[in-house]
């Protein structure tokens, strides 16, 4: 697949989105953005610029104080199934890997024996087919995050929202998970919105990077990453990659000028 693919239809349009928390913190102001079906979009910016707030508004976990969040779906509603992956894997320590991944289906009333093929498929997709009976304490940080990813994708959500999912991992593990996530994205055709404060990670993963600035949180600009897929270690060392990182970095610097 290349960036020369046909333009994707819009999935989500944000217009003038603002958020003021109780207590008066203006976390976001005047955010306009469009997410297209099948996009991989990163939100990049310094701590406190409202990335998580924006992702939570998109997820419907919190409400915007002003502006419009418009889904281009039948009836204009948010897809029923939106996967969410947080920085902390948030696994139940007393439950096996299989039971952790089962949770979203259990909450929907699907019986375990009926869910089992789906659970094993989700675990296989993140490379953990042999760890179904393991407990979280037996897993490395990267494996826990894979379980969290399997739990998010077990319901086959069309949209995946990821809030700094690999930020706590060592660099090698993170690069591996970035590669695996890209493989999954290419095969599943999800729409992914990915929050990170790493310029490098955002450029490696994304089709588009939305660069955000703080005080108040806003979108400063957008950098399109026109590099073809699959992306790999050769891309990480390329001039093209370095040029895109420099472009995101320059857009970020604009935002911190006095
Ligand atoms: P980021 O994800 O870019 O680090 P956040 O969206 O977490 O930024 O936070 C944006 C701003 O909103 C920060 O100033 C933060 O302190 C504030 N904030 C975040 N969550 C809350 C909350 N629940 N109540 C009050 N202020 C909050």
Round the mean pLDDT to the nearest integer and report it.
92
Q: Numbering strands along the chain, what is their spatial order in the largest sheet?
A: 5-6-7-3-8-9
Report the major sheet. Answer: 6 strands, mixed
Q: What small ligands are held by the chains?
A: adenosine-5'-diphosphate
Helix content: 25-40%
Q: Note the beta-strand portion.
A: 15-25%
Task: Give the end-to-end Cα distance, rounded to a whole number of Å.
Answer: 41 Å
Total number of helices: 8
Q: Kindly report the oligomeric state of this protein.
A: single chain
Give an overview in words.
The chain has 258 residues and is an alpha/beta fold. Helices cover 36% and strands 24% of the residues. The chain is built from 8 helices and 9 strands. It has a 6-stranded mixed sheet with strand order 5-6-7-3-8-9, sandwiched between helices. A hairpin with a 4-residue loop joins β8 and β9. 36% of the residues are buried. The model has no long low-confidence stretch (mean pLDDT 92). Adenosine-5'-diphosphate binds next to α1.
């Amino acid at each position: 697949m290349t960036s020369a693919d046909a333009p994707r239809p819009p999935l989500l349009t944000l217009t003038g989105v603002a958020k003021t928390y109780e207590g008066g913190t203006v976390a976001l102001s005047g955010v306009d953005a469009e997410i297209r079906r099948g996009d991989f979009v990163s939100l990049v910016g310094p701590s406190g610029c409202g990335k998580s707030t924006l992702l939570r508004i998109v997820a419907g976990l919190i409400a915007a104080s002003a502006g419009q969040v418009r889904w281009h779906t039948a009836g204009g509603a948010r897809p029923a199934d939106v996967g969410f992956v947080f920085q902390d894997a948030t696994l139940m320590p007393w439950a096996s890997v299989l039971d952790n991944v089962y949770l979203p289906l259990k909450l929907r009333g699907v019986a375990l024996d009926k869910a089992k093929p789906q659970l094993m498929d989700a675990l296989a997709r993140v490379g953990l087919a042999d760890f179904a009976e393991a407990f979280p304490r037996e897993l490395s940080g990267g494996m826990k995050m894979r379980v969290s990813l399997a739990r998010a994708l077990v319901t086959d959500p069309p949209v995946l929202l990821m809030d700094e999912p690999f930020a706590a991992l060592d660099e090698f593990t993170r690069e591996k998970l970035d590669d695996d996530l890209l493989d999954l994205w290419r095969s599943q055709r999800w729409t992914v919105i990915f929050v990170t404060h790493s310029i490098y990670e955002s450029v490696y993963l994304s089709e588009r990077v939305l660069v955000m600035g703080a005080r108040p949180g806003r979108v400063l600009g957008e950098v399109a990453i026109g590099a073809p897929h699959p992306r790999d270690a050769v891309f990480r060392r390329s001039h093209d990659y370095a040029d895109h990182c420099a472009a995101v970095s320059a857009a970020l610097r604009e935002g911190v000028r006095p």
